[in-house]
């Protein structure tokens, strides 16, 4: 069972035992009071262990037309919903590791993010998905937990009535992820399904109205990606968080964005420092358009070659903003 759900059951047990302990006086029954106190301590210790050892995973609970009480769920719907959710996670993980994905082709690292259905939960019918701990190293497990958390935040943000939450959720999407989200919400909406998602400390429910709102929004998203080469000086470089700032030699506005994993690994192997270097940078420029709004540009640094500073640049002050 997903540790998050185990924690919920343990928390319910703990609350019940604590209530019994509060009603029990040691003067009236010392043995019973001692037993309840010991039970509280054991439950509290179990809760702490669950929090420390939780692997990457999520639980998806479905309601609405595809679900027939506690008897079952439509097989076609459930398999498609799990597949679409998995695509969203795999694509977000790949984008997290190496920047925005190409619109077509194989999704990198998809083999590292294949979960197992480890439990089926009845009621509003649900599935527990977890990545086997033996299949992923500690670094990738930490990254995958962060990605699953991002996916949960994205799904919640797509449905949120607050436009600011939606804008934050849309900002990190590429064309491939938008396609996966469109397919996911179209499936839920067409089937009249609701969704409850439990992941980490998140536990939220998307009713059918929220699902319909998310479908309409995500179908209004569009992304155009271009590859650009820009000569400039790197005036900001944060390797640990994968961020950079580039001041173009032509005097244009400072470009800020993220550094892909391959570039960071190459820098680490070579033992070089890009800060203040003059470079010919290769950037992925991403233009996100939301229906009836101005487009937003984001950048990913995918590589660079060092160059000489132009003669007019030598007298210009350099200020790191990051």
Report on the structure:
- The protein is α+β, with helices and mostly antiparallel strands and 322 residues long.
- The chain folds into 3 domains: 3-53; 57-219, no CATH class; 223-313, OB fold (Dihydrolipoamide Acetyltransferase, E2P) (Beta Barrel), CATH 2.40.50.
- 43% of the residues lie in helices and 27% in strands.
- The chain is built from 8 helices and 12 strands.
- A 5-stranded antiparallel beta sheet has the order 4-5-1-6-7.
- Strand 6 (193-199) and strand 7 (202-206) form a beta hairpin.
- Helix 1 packs antiparallel against helix 2, helix 3 runs antiparallel to helix 6 (175-191) and helix 4 (138-159) packs antiparallel against helix 5 (163-171).
- It is globular.
Spell out the blueprint of helices and strands.
Blueprint (H helix, E strand, L loop, with lengths): L2 H21 L6 H24 L3 E8 L2 E2 L3 E2 L1 H24 L17 E6 L4 E5 L7 H22 L3 H9 L3 H17 L1 E7 L2 E5 L1 H11 L2 E18 L4 E6 L6 E5 L1 H10 L7 E13 L5 E11 L16
Parallel strand pairs: 10-12
Antiparallel strand pairs: 1-5, 1-6, 2-3, 4-5, 6-7, 8-9, 8-11, 9-10, 11-12
Helix pairs in contact: 1-2, 3-4, 3-6, 4-5, 6-7
Question: Strands of the largest sheet, in order across it?
Answer: 4-5-1-6-7
Give the ordered list of helices and strands.
HHEEEHEEHHHEEHEEEHEE
Helix content: 40-55%
Q: Tally the helices: what do you get?
A: 8
**Poorly predicted runs of 5 or more residues:** none
As for the number of domains, it is 3
SSE-based structural type:
alpha+beta
